[in-house]
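Support request, please re-run this one:
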Amino acid sequence: MIAVFDKDVLLSALIPAMYTVSGKNTMPSIEGIHLTCNYDEKCMIQSYDLEKGMRTYIDCEVEEEGVCIINAQKLLQIVKAMPEGKMKISVDESYKTVIEAGLSHFEIKALPGNDFPSLPELMGDKGFLIPQYLFRNIVNKIFFAVGQNDSRPVFNGAFFKISGDELTAVACDGNRLAISETKAELVNKSRDTSSSLSVKFIVPGKTLSEILKMVKDTEEDMEIRLMRRYVIFKIGAFVFFSKIIDSEYIDYNRILPKTHMIETTVKSQELRSALERSSLIVEDRLAGTIRSYVKFTIDDKFSISTTSANGNVFDEVEMKKEGTSEITIGFNCRFLLDALKVCPDGDVKLSFVNPLMGVTIEPLDTKDGKTTYFVMPVRMNN
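Re-run finished. Output below.
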């Protein structure tokens, strides 16, 4: 294989491809970038870690057709270090690889292209178009609540449900729940367009993390297609695919309390600032100390306090209150902050049942759809 690339064009494909390169050092082939160069002056670039993968095509000048696998980290580092402009990649029959640009010259070893694992057929019966900015906004609202390496697989992903023009995204890690609901005119790209779109699927959090790096704050559409075991994202010239979490999602509506004893309305930015001040004490670990909690006391005032071996802090925020009850309840400060950081500035409603039932958080600004968060409490010492 001999092909000449523009450095910037090659980099624009290699950087996203790194998102789906395996880093587990199990198979050399999946630690590499798969290159296929044809005389049609195109190079197909693929990466695949057996769970998720990427495919794209870039222009190049092909002097000799060929297929090979080049270690992804080495290739990216070399390309970044090369001078600007054109660069040539040559792979001979023994897979000795020469990468040269200007007076710079590298020699490394490639692998046969046939060593690359077979990719799934990237076809799906159901699919839809969604503006990139809308997908980005929805995922950003819930992503903090996706579990990390939880023993329950569904908690390690985000649940999406589309029914007609209603789009719901949910994430839950066992300590907090995030629900985003919005109406959107999605373009149905399913094979059967005679009925309204109706799909449910769970995307692994690690996949969403990489997709968020690709989608932009633009009205340009991205396409999402569903296969039996895979979800496919088509973003511009890039095709990303990932195994879905094949399991029934939790009944998240049952988690939310239906009635509340106390409802308060506060400014989200004021409560967020108070919690950030509390976090200076809560999260300042000293040797031998245990991380403490932040305590809400709601009577005729909304007080926030925490005490630990590192010190103490007390704050108050202005509120409007409904209900005559009083409550004292403790929370993990970071769990609350994560939810409030994705709430828009303005009024937010906090609803309480009792000290063991947690808090429901609802931004009152619903112009971008309805969002609901639920954070479980911690058991206090007194």
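The helical segments are 7-17, 72-81, 132-142, 205-214, 268-282, 333-341. Residues 157 and 204 are 4 Å apart (CA to CA).
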